[in-house]
């Protein structure tokens, strides 16, 4: 009864990481972008492969008809950026899991970074510099609105 | 004589196999995406160049490849929802096995809707 309560040192507070928690942001991004991509890509697959003539109806006129509308330019741009970041981040995980030698890992990461940059820059430029009615092209290959005026 | 070890394959049942399938489909979709941006970029070259390359997507072998691609995308999307439910739903981990089979069922339903339309377009002729 008389024994005094031993005093214990207060638990030390956990060390706070100074740098931002990039792996957490990567984890959150995979889920957020995944949810958006589900909608974006299911609609993309439906408009291109199911409605109308499906794959048999895809030609320059079909693509030009879609990209003449800003909504599809933005739609495809969102797919391009979100899917490339989502996919490159997934490949980063796969490389980290299986490429145990540092040299192999750095080489594969370098290739991934180059492929990512080339495809994202090229795709973005194509969406925004594209002309649905290129001068000099045969009219029967173009969407009908090119000759309607 | 001691019994031979049963092997080193980790038999994690539905949880492991859905993870394997998610990884494999994600890997394949990424490489298709690279090719898909390159082929679509031909619209910037000329209508003839784009139509020539997209024409190869319409032959039966590529048509089957597209069916496989759509299957990979549909599985990856549905299982991605399952992953999010496991992460964010309080009972997600308890029902992860049942959700795997729900993913399989939804996959079969969606593909049953898609395949007849797509294969009709590929093999139906003009």
Note down, in words, how this protein is organized:
The complex is a heterodimer of chains A (149) and B (126). Chain A has helices at 22-50, 60-67, 70-98, 102-129, 145-148. With 149 residues, chain A is mainly α. Chain A has a single domain (26-148), classed as Fumarate reductase/succinate dehydrogenase, transmembrane subunit (3 helical TM bundles of succinate and fumarate reductases). In chain A, helix 1 (22-50) crosses helix 3 and helix 3 packs antiparallel against helix 4 (102-129). The longest helix of chain A has 29 residues, at 22-50. By secondary structure, chain B is mostly helical. Helices cover 75% and strands 0% of the residues of chain B. In chain B, helix 1 packs across helix 3 (60-88) and helix 3 (60-88) packs antiparallel against helix 4 (96-123). At the A-B interface, helix 1, helix 2, helix 3 and helix 4 of A face helix 1, helix 2, helix 3 and helix 4 of B. Chain B: InterPro entries: SdhC_prok, SQR/QFR_C/D, Succ_DH_cytb556, SuccDH_FuR_B_TM-su. Chain B: It is found in: Membrane. Chain B: It holds the Pfam family Sdh_cyt. Chain B: The chain crosses the membrane at residues 20-38, 99-119.
Q: Biggest protein-protein interface?
A: A-B, 43 and 40 residues
What is the helix fraction of residues of chain B, given as a range? over 70%
Q: Structural class of chain B, please? A: mainly alpha
CATH architecture of chain B: Up-down Bundle
Rg calculated over all Cα atoms of chain A: 26 Å
Q: Please provide the count of β strands of chain A.
A: 0
Gap between N and C termini of chain A, in Å? 101 Å
Quaternary state of this entry equals heterodimer
- Helix segment tally of chain A: 5
The radius of gyration over CA of chain B amounts to 20 Å
Helix-strand topology string of chain A: HHHHH
What is this structure, in a nutshell?
Chain A is mostly helical and 149 residues long. Chain A contains five helices and no strands. Chain A has one domain (26-148): Fumarate reductase/succinate dehydrogenase, transmembrane subunit (3 helical TM bundles of succinate and fumarate reductases), CATH 1.20.1300.10.
């Amino acid at each position: 009864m008389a024994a005094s309560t031993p005093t214990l040192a207060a638990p030390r507070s956990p060390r706070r990481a100074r740098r931002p928690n990039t792996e957490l942001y990567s984890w959150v991004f995979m889920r957020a972008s995944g949810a958006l991509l589900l909608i974006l890509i299911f609609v993309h697959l439906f408009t291109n492969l199911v409605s109308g003539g499906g794959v048999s109806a895809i030609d320059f006129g079909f693509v030009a008809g879609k990209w003449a509308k800003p909504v599809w330019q933005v739609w495809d741009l969102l797919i391009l950026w979100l899917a490339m970041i989502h996919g490159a981040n997934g490949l980063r995980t796969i490389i980290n899991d299986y490429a145990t030698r540092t040299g192999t890992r750095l080489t594969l990461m370098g290739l991934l970074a180059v492929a990512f940059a080339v495809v994202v820059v090229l795709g973005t430029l194509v969406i925004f510099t594209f002309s649905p009615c290129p001068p000099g092209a045969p009219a029967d290959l173009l969407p009908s609105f090119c000759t309607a005026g | 004589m001691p019994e031979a070890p049963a092997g080193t394959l980790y038999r994690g049942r539905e949880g492991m196999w859905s993870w394997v399938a998610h990884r494999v489909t994600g890997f394949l979709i990424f490489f298709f995406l690279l090719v898909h941006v390159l082929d679509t970029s031909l619209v910037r070259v000329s209508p003839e160049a784009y139509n020539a390359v997209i024409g190869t997507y319409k032959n039966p072998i590529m048509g089957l490849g597209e069916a496989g691609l759509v299957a990979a995308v549909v599985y990856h999307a549905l299982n991605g929802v399952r992953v999010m439910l496991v992460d964010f739903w309080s009972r997600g981990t308890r029902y992860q096995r049942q959700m795997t089979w729900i993913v399989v069922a939804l996959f079969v339903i969606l593909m049953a809707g898609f395949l007849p339309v797509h294969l009709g377009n590929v093999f139906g002729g003009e």
